[in-house]
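Q: Can someone sanity-check these two? First one:
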Amino acid sequence: MAAALLANMQLLARFGVTPNANGLSCSFLGCFDQTGSPVSGIVYYLTSPGSRTQGSILQDLVSGTLVPQELVRAGTYLIFLTAAAVVFSVFWINTAGMDAKSVAKQISEIGMQIPGYRKDPKIMEAVLNKYIPPLAVLGGLSIGILAALADFLGAIGTGTGILLTVTIIYNYYEQLSSEKLDDAHPIIKKILGE
């Protein structure tokens, strides 16, 4: 979602562009060169330095061609992507029914309780509130940093694309492992550890 937000900001920046004498097309969010790459403005600082055609920020660092402006760009991109990932992570647990109140209700409905505490859902909610929101923030923070670093280093695809690929493959693995695999091919059984 954070990457989609950044892509939509770039799309919004391309509306109402007017060419100027320098060969740049500018809008209220920034200027673009002839190849469509941002060269200034807000949209420039919200794109990954690894998204350039010249290579990754790591290549620039090793070759000694890294300029301070690219470090500022990398820092703002990292901060924005990480903050957006944290916000979307907290938003997701609240809207998907994974917040402390919903989980406490689910636990009490199936007759379980937290050892050492009463079976009251309000008490379970208070205990779960110590863990669920900080873990959502920590998860969003780590995903945002991982996606930004993959973008900086010029990973195949983007950091977000890699995360989506791994998540989709893992979900297929879980789905296949939960199904009955008696009549599955022996290779599938071997992969799933059956």
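And here is the second, same format, sequence then tokens:
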Amino acid sequence: MSLLGTHLTLLLGPTVAVPASPLLMENLQSVEVTHGDEQRSAFQIVFRVGRSGFLGLLDYPQLLDPQLRAFNRVIVIATFNVIPRVLIDGIITNVQLNPGSGPGEATITITGEDVSLMMDRTEVSMEHPALPDPLIVTTLILKYAQYGLIPLVIPTPYIDPAIPVERIPVQQCTDLQYIEALARRYGYVFYIIPGPFPFTNTAYWGPPIRAGVPQSALSLNMGAQTNVRSMDFQHDALGPAFVQGLVLDHRTNTPVPVVTFASLRLPPLALLPTWVVNRLNARTLRFRTATPSGISAFGQAQAMTDRSNDVVVTATGELDADRYGSPLEPRALVGVRGAGYSYDGLYYVKEVTHSILPREGQYTQRFTLNREGLGSTVPVVIP
């Protein structure tokens, strides 16, 4: 199905997803996909339905369609300006019928989440003796190779090996919950990146990606060059927090003070980080987490400080993908211009929601951007 240079491909199926039937594509009403760096990606697809013919006497034919059953796999591919991109590779978790109040108003809505959902279904009790955390994460991800998961695991900023005679890491939850808990320990994030090819997914475990070539700028108040429909900014001066505490190092059996002084997210995206400008008014958190060593305590405390500074300045808005020239990529950098000195510059794209209305020929995106303070660190951004 084509719209304004975009071709939409929908694959559905219980084990191997296949192209959606012509009846489903003909009645496709809308597609919405949300990507973020702290929660599973989600999708919602709406079809118009009707009751006609012999099957219509019994039920809506689409409700009997095996492609729309719960726990089927769904792959949505958007080809924008000849470049295909997998928007979501997920699992159906909910099927909703809305009969409507008049002829032709009935719809079926399928919703679901990305394939990491399958990592969050079974709680286990498991030991991971003598394994560093990145290797534990890699091992857990590889258990789900049937969903095309390819691990991309970034080494941790500090190493505190689990020596079996001292401690053994124990998992008492689902694989996804354990992976996310390990990510929070280092100020990392975990998410699934669909693609680059259908039936493949990259499982990323590491720090927020704040490097690389920024995407084309989001422009506002620039006349013909404006490419966003709306954009709002918020500066939370209460966001930054530092950590203080005292922990007992089990290896040396001595108390160790734990203190953080700055955010270590690199590279900095704001010229005037709020944790520097408002240092005297920053919050102070007590470190009360039990840790096996002083090294681990320092690392976890620094992760708390880094995460508190990630969302100090938040920009939310909406753009037209056709006018912008390409879909805005989440979990990457983007430039902003036209907002003035305080809010221009580079941002981290924390969340993006794709909204596609094939019949109306609309492809819009709602987005959330973040950084640690005000002022631009670059003189210009990529137009």
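A (reply): Looked at the second one. Residues 241-310 form one domain. The mean pLDDT is 92.
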